[in-house]
Amino acid sequence: MSRPYRVWDTESKCFWENANKAHVGCIEQLFIGLSGDFLLRQNGTIIHESMFPGRFIRMDSTGMKDHLNEREIFDRDIVEYGNSGEKEKLRRGLVRYKKTYAAFVIESMDSPGREYLLVDCQDEWLAVIGNEFENHQLLSNFPKK
Questions:
Q1: Do 32 and 91 reside in the same domain of the chain?
Q2: In-domain check, residue 144
Q3: The domain containing residue 69 runs over which residues?
Q4: pTM beyond 0.85, yes or no
Q5: Residues 6+ apart with CB under 8 A from 19
Q6: Residue 111 domain-assigned (yes or no)
Q7: For residue range 68-125, what is the model confidence (pLDDT) as tens digits?
Q8: Residue 141 pLDDT > 80, yes or no?
């Protein structure tokens, strides 16, 4: 069984959607090959990601949903979390996958350098408020890496 994911297109500045625009002579599909590499099919031609390095960024699903809208939580989502839904008590953070933990964490925006395992926050209030690509202004106080 494969885990859901989404893909950010750094060139188009939007999430990738397989496009079937045959009426204008363009059919594009994005695949992930067996080795984990991106493959782009354009009008019948398959192009390996080495031809467009860094264009696509894959974000895996955490397998969790937020408490506000039952919205699926992905790597690089910006979340509000805390012990209650009271706005003034909520903290903000960026969801990231950490290989060192083999787990998703929330990198705290309120306490730089602090990380919380996402699974430990599942019983708290947790709401997706954006992502680092479409809502980068929410990261204005977040330290750059």
A1: no
A2: no
A3: 61-139
A4: no
A5: 26, 27, 28
A6: yes
A7: 889 999 999 999 998 765 666 788 999 999 999 999 999 998 888 899 999 988 788 8
A8: no
